[in-house]
């Protein structure tokens, strides 16, 4: 019969397994980005602001030629689905606004940092063979 | 929470809109409540997506912005049985009416046609909204208009489900 001391580490492992590996998150984000490029032909670039604290919420900013200019980064929630099972906050900005964001003239939402991003260019992503 | 408060007000405005429409009240009053309901719904959606209240208060075109993003929400796609591409095309067909509703707000009307205050036309005549024939009312009774109203109603009723959350305590 197992003692309580033997059971504790197993419970910790079980909790740890619930967290998605970084590679899996990376794959989901790439598939999501590809899907957005396929759906919206006015998106030139998607920027993934990676989480520093390991949170699973995905933060994506789309550089969209038809975005409504607002001078701010306004985020919307995109629901989880079987295909993309991660909570996602999405924003879109015009190319001019994106330049201002990079120049520090338009602030980013709290927790979003230009120091930890991955940029996806339309042409490159769509030219890759889908996994 | 700001999003809950904006949603509650949007729902209340929507109910008044429905009552006024059923009672066959003047178009300006019916459209005024529709404009207010949809503006607050757009702002509630932004707030639930973690946009700050300062940015929301300073924002215009919240409803049009909301529509462009709601088409990306997986739950609404599932609910309507549409793919992402179908949903995008569906919403795209609604945008011009949505923009017309949004422009009824005096702040966006540029001293012209709106649902609240009188305006002056180039000939010098001053027009009261209550005496004006809003063609938008007829558009809203057409197929595209009804689809837009249906979508607004679905989002109002399922707001938190679309955010992967259960209805919050105390929320209407």
Task: Give a structural overview.
The complex is a heterodimer of chains A (131) and B (172). With 131 residues, chain A is of the alpha+beta class. Chain A is built from four helices and five strands; from the N terminus they run H-H-E-E-E-E-H-E-H. Chain A has helices spanning 4-18, 22-39, 95-102, 122-127; strands spanning 43-49, 58-64, 76-78, 88-93, 117-121. In chain A, strands 3-4-2-1-5 form a five-stranded mixed beta sheet. The longest helix of chain A has 18 residues, at 22-39. Chain A is globular. In chain B, helix 4 (62-70) runs antiparallel to helix 6. In chain B, strand 1 and strand 2 form a beta hairpin. The longest helix of chain B is centred in the first third of the chain and has 22 residues, at 27-48. Chain B is built from nine helices and two strands, in the order αααααααββαα. Chain B is mostly helical and 172 residues long. The model of chain B is unreliable at 168-172 (pLDDT under 50). Chain B has helices spanning 2-22, 27-48, 53-57, 62-70, 74-80, 84-102, 106-109, 135-141, 143-157, and strands at 119-120, 126-127. Chain B has a two-stranded antiparallel sheet.
In short:
The complex is a heterodimer of chains A (131) and B (172). Chain A has 131 residues and is of the alpha+beta class.
Number of helices of chain B: 9
Low-pLDDT segments of chain B: 168-172
For the report, how would you describe the main beta sheet of chain A?
Answer: 5 strands, mixed
The radius of gyration of chain B is 16 Å
What proportion strand of chain B? under 5%
Q: In percent, how much strand structure appears in the residues of chain A?
A: 15-25%
Calculate the mean pLDDT score of chain A and round it.
84
Helix/strand order of chain B, N-terminal first: HHHHHHHEEHH
Structural class of chain B: mainly alpha
Oligomer: heterodimer
Outline of chain A, from the CA principal axes?
Answer: globular
For the termini of chain A, the CA-CA separation is 46 Å
Beta-strand segment tally of chain B: 2
Kindly report how far apart the N and C termini of chain B lie.
13 Å
Which range best describes the helical content of chain B: under 10%, 10-25%, 25-40%, 40-55%, 55-70% or over 70%?
A: 55-70%
Radius of gyration of chain A, rounded? 18 Å
Indicate the structural class of chain A.
alpha+beta
Would you tell me the overall average pLDDT of chain B? 92
Number of helices of chain A: 4
